[in-house]
Amino acid sequence: MSEKTPGEILKDKLIMNKKHAGLILEDAQINESFAFCEQYKAFLDNAKTEREAVNEAVRLAKQKGFAEFERDKKYSPGDKIYCVNRGKSVILAVIGQAPANEGVRIAAAHIDSPRLDLKPNPLYEDSEFAMFKTHYYGGIKKYQWVTLPLALHGTVIKKDGTQLDIVIGEDADDPCFVVTDLLPHLSAEQNKKTLAEAFKGESLNILIGSLPFKDDKVSERVKLNIMRLLNEKYGFTESDFISAEIEAVPRHKASDIGFDRSMIGAYGHDDRVCAYPALRAVLDCETPPFTAVTILADKEEVGSDGNTGLHSRFFQSFINDLALSQGTHGYRVLGRSLCLSADVNVGHDPNYPDVLEKNNAARLGYGAVITKYTGSRGKSDTSDASAEYVGRIRKLFEDAGVLWQTGELGRVDMGGGGTVAKYIANLDVDTVDIGVPVLSMHSPFEVVSKLDVKAAYDAFAAFYGRLF
Q1: Measured between alpha carbons, how far is residue 460 from residues 47, 260, 285, 368, 463 in Å?
Q2: Which of 6, 216, 315, 326 has a C-alpha 20 to 30 A away from that of 165?
């Protein structure tokens, strides 16, 4: 074997040489990643809405000995607690060895995903079809939601105050629902339009029935028949839709992608592919050096506004209560805390290479992605992590053997986006985005690498479990 040339030696010393995780990991480690993702796939299928994600997180937490947070209770190192916010977001924490005034370690993910929400008065009849009116939630490409089998998940508060949780369309013998589209034979005019013009938000109406009620004395007999069926099975009337939150989501289950089964296709990777590893990391904590806090928040896809989003005070209130129980103040805790904003980034797609700048594009299979900033145009509407903090996280990952890479959210001036990082950073917390690269982001069927999912878990576990 010939010796390396001076140039080769210098290149090895000075130039980055990122490799696919499949070329770095042993077969046993790859198998471990695949096994981890079987549990993640089950989480995806059980948690298609933010409410279901909270319920699943609490169920898993209770199995690990977590108890509901009591604001007036004094906690000791190793205690495990959770705090549910209005059924749509949850904070889980393991009390660390260091007192709260030395800061906590935070991983903040979101559990809402783009979808179609039913309007407050959704049910109508047209041309002897019963339909649901919808209002899309989050940034979607509307054409992706037509001719897609849909399931209905949600909560109805009936006029007598009782709560009814429904899931229709997930079981094999359930009916499903669909937004129809125009046949290509008659699409000449539609084809002349832009995508935004051809598929209007107001036209994303869901087909739910066509059989009329047998009574010539009443009008809208298909609508009446649908309400009859709903009343017989669930006991609610049309007015109960006003106090309901019903979400139409893709019916399909999470599936392996590829002959090698190296990827997962599913609805809701953004951001459950980061939420689940962050959840598992805190569940697997015993007595961390610093208190470990995982936030699973709602409303990120629509700006994090509202009392279940991270633009509200629910997280700050939790920290204040935790601080008071240890004889300190919340602002002192936050000022010494560190955060990983757990959110996805775009992965390089060979079908659409021009939207990314290759030197700063994340790739599937290269590990968890550090995103120093998001935003748009001139880095507006973002938190830009400091060199000092990125350096600390980079060293942590290297020391812990975490597979990682860096990435931007597209070329300059190509578009952009945001995460919850800025809301945590605005509380005086050093924050950087760590997540998983995704193909077909915000579509009903997103794609991720199994190796990246496990790398994200390794990143959060190291963040909670190691001194750095």
Answers
A1: 21, 27, 11, 10, 5
A2: 315
AA identity, residue 144: Q
- For the entire predicted model, the pTM comes to 0.96
At which of 194, 217, 250 does a domain end?
250
* CATH number of the domain bearing residue 186: 2.30.250.10
Task: Please provide the DSSP assignment of 157-218 as one string.
Answer: E-TTS-EEEEEES-STTS--BEE----GGG-HHHHTS-HHHHS-GGG-PEEEE-PPPS-TTS
Show the domain range for 38: 22-113+267-465
Within a domain: 17? no
122 and 186 belong to one structural domain: yes
260 domain-assigned: no
Q: Report the pLDDT value the prediction gives residue 141, as an integer from 0 to 100.
A: 97
300 and 435: one domain? yes
Domain count, the chain: 2
Q: 308: Cβ–Cβ under 8 A, 6 or more apart, which residues?
A: 50, 85, 86, 88, 89, 297, 298, 299, 314
| 386-416 CB burial, b ≥16 within 10 A, e <16 | eeebbeebeebbeebebbbbbbbbbeeeeeb
CATH code, domain with 328: 3.40.630.10
Q: What is the pLDDT of residues 163-203, one digit of tens each?
A: 999 999 999 999 999 999 999 999 999 999 999 999 999 99
Q: Name the phi and psi angles at 381, rounded to 5.
A: 60, 45
Q: Model confidence over 23-55: pLDDT tens digits?
A: 999 999 999 999 999 999 999 999 999 999 999
Q: Where are the beta strands (DSSP E) in 312-429?
A: 338-342, 345-346, 368-371, 375-376, 404-406, 416-417
Pairing of strands 430-435, 368-371: antiparallel
Q: Residues 109, 119: one domain?
A: no
Whether 289 and 238 map to the same domain: the answer is no
